[in-house]
Amino acid sequence: MNAVPEHVDVLIIGAGLSGIGAAHHLQTAFPGKSYLILEARHTLGGTWDLFRYPGVRSDSDMQTLGYRFRPWTQAKAIADGPSILTYLRETAAEAGIDRRIRYGHSVDQVSWSSEQQRWTVEAGREGSAGTLRFTCDFLISCTGYYRYDEGHNPGFEGIERFAGPIVHPQHWPEELDYQGKRVVVVGSGATAVTLVPAMAAEAAHVTMLQRSPTYIISRPTEDAIANWLRKVLGNRAAYPITRWKNVLLSTLVYQLSQRRPRVIKKLIRSGLERQLPAGYDIDTHFTPRYKPWDQRLCLVPDGDLFTAIRDGRASIVTDHIDHFTDNGIQLRSGEHLDADIVVLATGLTLRLLGDMKVIVDDQPVDLSATLAYKGMMLSGVPNVAFTIGYTNASWTLKADLVSEYVCRVLAYMDAHGYTQAVPINDDPSIGTRPLLDFAAGYVQRSVDMLPKSGTRAPWRLGMSYAHDLVTLRHRRIDDGVLRFTRPPRSGGPAQRDGSTGQDDVVGVEVSELPLGQQNPGPAVSA
Ligand SMILES: Cc1cc2nc3c(=O)[nH]c(=O)nc-3n(C[C@H](O)[C@H](O)[C@H](O)COP(=O)(O)OP(=O)(O)OC[C@H]3O[C@@H](n4cnc5c(N)ncnc54)[C@H](O)[C@@H]3O)c2cc1C
């Protein structure tokens, strides 16, 4: 362990989409602050580098999956994985963020000291027995929401008997040859519906084996309005307009799905009837038992999945796996699916804060016993924020807002000489509920381990961009729940605001500060 830890003002953990975005917001708002990004892997991009299966792509539009501060300039609104990775790499390189990343540093433990008013961060380094220590004033966790080392494996009976390759999309073997092979893709989520048409282009046949159906809608790969606006107005001016168009459209669909599910169900069904062969059994294969948007709606660009089904290159089987055999899968219905290759698109294993052990003043923090403040800070845990995106809209919409909010908190602390900001729940009338109110399997399997959401603001994790935009960008930082502390006088305890006779500073909004102390905000506004 290094005897003298390296100190930075802000430490970001994770160099995926969220970490790079957080760094960009931070250095734009505070060119003078020092920061580092610790990244466990040897490259940036997170999800968009890890997943390399055939056809990997976004399932939301790039005008909202792209950053607010950096327009997405390509014609395709539904982009392939490599293009998204290039966008992230270019964002990091252009802003010099890549020089601040320490690769191969996997953070195992973070400990807050109230006495020192700082975090000590311990990171293991691959191939090295020792641990490196860093200290920082503020910590931003951008570690994503799932385990990288393994996806969810439901543990199918007899799986070891299967003679062919069994592949998980999270660890796609580059050399896998599926040309002319019979492939079974187990799953019905975004990954399965991406893989099926992509593999069907070369395989003998691809069967998507699902236990239950998912709502699937087709959407053009290119957004004609966005491309027209880009031509007329240029990238920079067109981007926020398209972004807002897409935000409003997806909000409308989401709200309608919640309030008038029958209308949306009917619309989805008529889309399916148009694109699937006449007489196709839509009830069995495409009609879920839940309401649209109780789980994420799956999107297929230009109806590629339906084309593969129409062409006879792909099919869907809705059944339960009884057991694996040496040459395929025996279903409960009695049918046997012959297969040369099986792909387990059975989902992710959820995890928050990158499995880090969190300690506050020598006490380990039980994350499941904390409440999430504004969906990004933890009750009783000072100077830390984490990024979780929306489940009903693009991740980046929320990631950008989290970063902006953190910058506002930092500006507020700087302006008032505070060294600690901690959300405290002392309102007994606040009830708790699961953090993610989402029926998807990967959420339901692990929701008990996550922090809780409160029944009221500011403890509720909202899923509305418009609401968050107002709350996070414009509402006052000092809301009485986020409590601030000044550094301890030599030898004395830290001074909690309100007990120091310095209430005069409480309530000053960042917008009221002298210009130099305000967060100037990104160049492009949406
Ligand atoms: C296949 C797939 C497709 C998706 N498509 C979309 C989409 O179209 N639209 C959408 O909105 N969302 C989509 N998502 C969700 C997607 O994960 C987010 O959009 C976004 O990429 C998340 O970025 P992130 O940086 O928060 O997390 P990640 O991309 O997961 O990056 C986290 C980074 O943190 C690092 N890390 C984790 N723990 C530690 C630790 N302890 N120490 C150091 N480093 C650590 C990881 O190595 C990784 O580099 C998709 C997800 C998947 C899996």
Outline the fold blueprint:
Layout: E1 6-13, H1 17-29, E2 35-38, H2 47-50, H3 62-65, H4 81-94, E3 101-102, E4 105-113, E5 118-125, E6 131-141, E7 166-167, E8 182-186, H5 190-200, E9 205-210, E10 216-219, H6 224-233, H7 235-259, H8 261-275, H9 282-286, E11 298-301, H10 304-310, E12 314-318, E13 321-325, E14 328-331, E15 336-338, E16 341-344, E17 357-360, E18 363-364, E19 372-373, E20 377-378, E21 384-386, H11 395-416, E22 420-423, E23 432-434, H12 441-446, E24 452-454, H13 465-474, E25 482-486, E26 495-496
Parallel strand pairs: 1-2, 1-6, 2-3, 4-17, 6-21, 7-16, 8-9, 8-16, 9-12, 10-11
Antiparallel strand pairs: 4-5, 5-6, 13-14, 14-15, 17-18, 19-20, 22-25, 23-24, 25-26
Would you report the number of β strands? 26
Work out the helix count: 13
Helical amount: 25-40%
Low-confidence stretches: 498-526
Biggest beta sheet summary: 9 strands, mixed
If you compute it from the alpha carbons, what radius of gyration comes out, rounded to the nearest whole angstrom? 24 Å
How would you state the average pLDDT, rounded?
90
Structural class: alpha/beta
How much beta, percentage-wise? 15-25%
Shape: globular
Quaternary structure of the protein:
single chain
Cα-to-Cα separation, first versus last residue: 45 Å
What binds here, in terms of ligands, is: flavin-adenine dinucleotide
